[in-house]
Amino acid sequence: MASLSMSAHVAGGFVPTMFTAPSSAASTHCGTLSNANLSSCSTSSSGSLASSTMSGTKLPLTGLVRPVGKPAGRGREVIVMTATISQKSRGADLNGGTKEKHSMVTHSLAPEKIEVFKSLEGWAESTLLPLLKPVEKCWQPQDYLPEPSSEGFLDEVKELRERSAGLPDDYLVCLVGDMITEEALPTYQTMLNTLDGTRDETGASPSPWGVWTRAWTAEENRHGDVLNKYLYLTGRVDMRQIEKTIQYLIGSGMDPKTENNPYLGFVYTSFQERATFISHGNTARHAKQFGDAKLATICGLVAADERRHENAYTKIVEKLFEIDPDGTMLAFADMMRKKVSMPAHLMYDGQNEHLFDNFSLVAQRTGVYTARDYADIMEHLVNRWNVASMQGLSSKAQTAQEYVCSLPPRIRKLEERAQAKVKKGPKTGSFSWIFNREVALL
Ligand SMILES: [Fe+2]
Ligand SMILES: [Fe+2]
């Protein structure tokens, strides 16, 4: 059973930070020992997948993740090593140290399965790449921002400021949090390039997987740009604090627990693209309600990109289900059991240890992204991939199938309980992003 230890003063905001996923038969058996003790973690999920327990501020000892010559394959043992860093060494950590949470299972896909992705190159070329938009047909941030070379620039900025004056603080917190998440794009490109069999081997690889990753990144790059510039021009937010948060976040990276495994990686990205589609769609809707139609357009355009990207990543997983239903089912269950962590879960502004939890609570309260959305996305993916009706699975994969199908209602129930606990936390919190003004959390 994978559990995420909570260090926050509240029980967490999002489902991803507050619940322990119900266990499945495909669970792994890991012990995690502190202070550089070794821990053995054996797989039981058809061998291709493994998982480790994440625990608070335990950090990996680089280079000692697994024994040489012992790849994680079918039924093999994966060695996981974690260490708890001392308070003293935290002081030397550029990122404040306390937000680091890393699991260290690596290369969990069996070598023969890596070949699957080589064999899918033709498919990726014909099916995946057409889902990208040619640059000349893409919107650019400048299309929706005041034109700095124009004589009317200052008037346009004035208008923008008048429109955005009606945006409440809790909305700004959500928009800033979303923008910071987008701005940590280097981390997400890195994550995609950790995946065995699909990574961009050179940085300019002609493989369709490499082409996809670079063009996807290039499309995504516009999201942070447009939101950052817009927020800057509003004059409503503390840009220096926001910039610090982005620097901290990129420095911290993220821990999606995808184990260099493209099966897990593409389940993760399918989930995340939908999560961002929902979140940006909601900030679009709310911007309109608060009288800023241009901001609504911007957020809507970002949401539409996310939707297109979700379509691409879910197509990859759909294809994997087609050619390897057992392995894909086990991967889906494994990712869901470990929970899908939010990409910005290591967010820090140099001041607030609870920044991500508080941001999550505001997103939850305002309806920008809620615990219910988490369960809904999971249910959506179960339906999208026709998981419930899949036939001819091995008994392990059947157990995994039953597990994922049963999860959404179970998570909704757990979420209700977690919400009740959250109510006992602080009612308000201040955000450095908006000059330390207080915002209701609950
Ligand atoms: Fe994005
Ligand atoms: Fe995205």
TrEMBL record:
Q: Does the keyword tRNA-binding apply?
A: no
| Cofactor requirements of the protein | Fe(2+)
Q: Which residues form the signal peptide?
A: none
| Entry-linked InterPro entries | Fatty_acid_desaturase-2, Ferritin-like_SF, RNR-like
- Annotated keywords: Fatty acid biosynthesis, Fatty acid metabolism, Iron, Lipid biosynthesis, Lipid metabolism, Metal-binding, Oxidoreductase, Transit peptide
Q: Which family does it belong to?
A: Belongs to the fatty acid desaturase type 2 family.
Protein name, as recorded: Acyl-[acyl-carrier-protein] desaturase
Q: Which organism is it from?
A: Sphagnum jensenii
